[in-house]
Write a structure and sequence with these properties.
The chain has eleven helices and 14 strands. With about 270 residues, the chain is α/β, with parallel strands linked by helices. The strands form two sheets. The chain has an eight-stranded mixed beta sheet with strand order 5-4-3-2-1-12-13-14, with helices on both faces. Strands 8-7-6-9-11-10 form a six-stranded mixed beta sheet, covered by helices on one side. α2 (about 25-35) packs parallel to α11.
Length: about 270
């Protein structure tokens, strides 16, 4: 793998299979990658403790990108890149989301904290707990957080048609935010300065690696900018058609270990 010097990878739907596991052979390939001196950078919408948990499961020590590009930390947990939205913006977003539809649930994330107004046992809340293995702070944002607290992401969960309509509405009313679908029923909202590509570009400069020498893997709409940024953008076989169209290459699905398949090819070519 002489050309490529850094690998960026989304987590859910890309690195993890449908059972939220890293397959043993994929882990072996990632360890070979690291042994060759090629950093494997996780790039996710997840909160930092959840990303670090994945790193530990694969014995990985490297910087990572959290909140879809709003926060970058190094392997020691030191913040390198921080692009949150103001608290007042997050409060207004949540108020607009609530007025748009009673069927959309929204949460906010600040650094290592997850905030929800109600811990009411909804399916969305249960799924977030299972995915992140974290528990939320309960209360209104403006009551739980200090006035100068950063908000790195607002996450909305609802049916696909409603979240599509909400995305159109919020993009019109909050042009200073990045608003993307991460899954059909999930809508992520960050500061306009936050994106996976922007955070990846920062890390390339920080690590002194040329963009053309990078590979990126992703499976959904919030990965498109990253796939277009990297020297080689790889969409997973389970990605929607527009994501595949934005990539240079389409891998097998996450359940077929598509990431491992492509990395092994690149390693053998090297």
């Amino acid at each position: 793998m002489t050309r490529y010097k850094l690998v960026f990878s989304d987590i859910d739907g890309t690195l993890l299979d449908s059972n939220q596991q890293v397959r043993p052979k994929t882990k072996e390939t990632l360890l070979q990658l690291c042994a060759a001196g090629i950093p494997f950078i996780l790039v996710s919408g997840r909160m930092p403790p959840s990303v670090v948990d994945i790193q530990k499961k694969i014995n990985l020590s490297a910087p990572f990108i959290s909140y879809s590009g709003a926060l970058v930390r190094d392997e020691n947990g030191t913040t390198l890149w921080d692009k949150p939205m103001p608290l007042i913006t997050a409060v207004r977003l949540k108020e607009r989301i609530a007025s748009f539809s009673a069927n959309v649930v929204s949460y906010a994330f600040s650094a290592d904290s997850w905030i929800t107004e109600k811990d009411d046992g909804t399916a969305a809340l249960y799924l977030e707990k299972e995915t992140t293995e974290m528990r939320p702070l309960v209360g209104r944002l403006q009551d739980v957080l200090q006035k100068n607290s950063p908000v790195h992401k607002v996450l909305c969960f609802g049916d696909e048609k409603t979240t599509d309509a909400l995305q159109t509405c919020l993009r019109r009313e909050f042009p200073h935010c990045t608003i993307l679908k991460s899954m059909p029923r999930y809508l992520e909202i960050m500061s306009a300065e936050a994106s996976k590509a922007a955070a990846a570009d920062f890390l390339c400069r920080y690590l002194k690696i040329d963009t053309k020498d990078t590979v990126a893997f992703g499976d959904n709409f919030n990965d498109i900018d990253l796939l277009e940024y990297a020297g080689l953008g790889v969409a997973m076989g389970n990605a929607p058609a527009p994501v595949k169209q934005a990539a240079d290459l389409v891998a097998p699905t996450n359940d077929e270990e598509g990431l491992r398949f492509i990395l092994e090819k690149l390693l053998h070519e090297g």
